[in-house]
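Ticket #4471: structure export looks truncated?
Reporter: QA, pipeline team
Priority: medium

Steps to reproduce: submit the single chain below to the structure queue and open the exported record.
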Amino acid sequence: MRAVVFSEFGAVPEVRAVPDPEPAPDGVVVAVAATGVCRSDWHAWRGHDPDVALPHVPGHELAGRIVEVGSRVRGWQPGMRVTVPFVCACGACPQCATGNQQICDNQFQPGFTGWGSFAEFVALDHAEVNLVALPEGFEPAEVAALGCRFGTAYRAVLRQGGLRAGEFVAVHGCGGAGLSAVLIAVAAGARVIAVDPSPEARELAKRMGAELAIDGEDAADVIRTFTGGGAHLSLDCAGLPVTCANSVASLRKRGRHVQVGLLPPELGVPPIPMHRVIADELRILGSHGLQAHEYPGMLDFVARAGIDLGQLISRRIGLGEAPAALSEMDEPVPARAGVTIVEPG
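Actual output as written to the record:
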């Protein structure tokens, strides 16, 4: 098969022929129809993830069809259209037993702990725990856009963040995860303030329903003034020390901060005002993906709310263009807003 491979962290990846994957006894092989280019893939390529072993194939936001099934897999057949969460769970650890597969103790992450979906085929383990059947009406590119970014934002806004209709929500960073958070919060009845240095990203956030879109300068003061005291819920979807600190600083008393963007130590440690956390009884939460058993509810939410997932997609490219798309993420302000989708076929 053809796949995007890098053999050195930070070196430009190349598309080359590699052996086709084989399914584990409890796994499947999926022909990749579409896969998203995510900043998490950039972190893996840049060497920020200790689970990545070289040489490596990135990619974790995928949709496709099953082409091979392991000997112990029941209920799944070749030809079925499927996706998976970016955290593939083991199904047997204490976290899985309590329904928290998104923080599985023995998790497998395509594109991180194993080769991923920037390829024509990808092997996925523990199929019966992790596969999600795609209902009709969702095309592969839209499902890839759901990927880790929309799923993580869904959990961050509605589960971890506990959003209630009418609340003010601040979204810091309007890449794929941030724009997803805007869509979800607006659909749930929130009043949304979007923060991003890119004029294109701010304009896209406003088209998706944000009441206010600002560039990040004095963001916390602007948000606290606009909302009359601060956001009820604020999310850092960029994963930078400054956006994390601004998110916490923009909260009203008893507000909730949810950290969505990765914060690798290599990028610095955010200055969290813990005196405010104590005095204002703020809540600091993380959000790490979405369990497979939550996907049907998320897909139903998307359908009932009439969310157009196509709004998230800024461009579709072939496998040969994926290395350049990954390299573009070196820029602090992305060249374009929205989600880039790779279609390997």
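Status: closed, not a bug. The export was complete when the record was re-opened. Leaving a note from the reviewer for reference: The chain has a mean pLDDT of 94.
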